[in-house]
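Might I ask for a little of your time on a matter of protein folding? The record follows directly beneath this note:
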Amino acid sequence: MGKTKVSIVNNQKDVKIPVGIRLLVRRSCNAVLDNENFTDDAEVSVSFVNDNEIHKLNYEYRNVDKSTDVLSFPLGENGVYDYNNETGAYMLGDIVISIQTALKQAKLYGHSLEREISFLTVHSMLHLLGYDHEQGGVEARNMRETEEQILDRLGMSRQSSYITE
């Protein structure tokens, strides 16, 4: 596996980011790339925001007038990614996580914030690599199974706490 640079920024002040979350996000990104046999160097950006900010982004980019838990902004399509000539890495895209919603969902589903953040990161990374669940069916099932397989490897397995949308 190539080197992966994961840039993480906290753009909110509503929830204190627990110690170890940044490392968990990096591990989650690497686990997805490893699972998908992505062997090149890669760059990913992860931002923590509040519900208001993700609501604005969701409306601006998806025309959906509500907050959400995570947004993915891929920089590639069909396995072809933007290339950073300065670093020699493929730029996979940006992940935006609402830490407020992640905290609410962790409580709702009865698991740790760490498990929720890891799930949202894995979910979004799969989107950056071309997975989609919007149409349901086989694609959605394949994505969900891949997510759980990766989370199991990370020690963040499901404990019947995830409710599908």
In short: The longest helix spans residues 137-153. The two ends are 33 Å apart (CA to CA). The domain at 4-153 is CATH 3.40.390.30 (Collagenase (Catalytic Domain)).
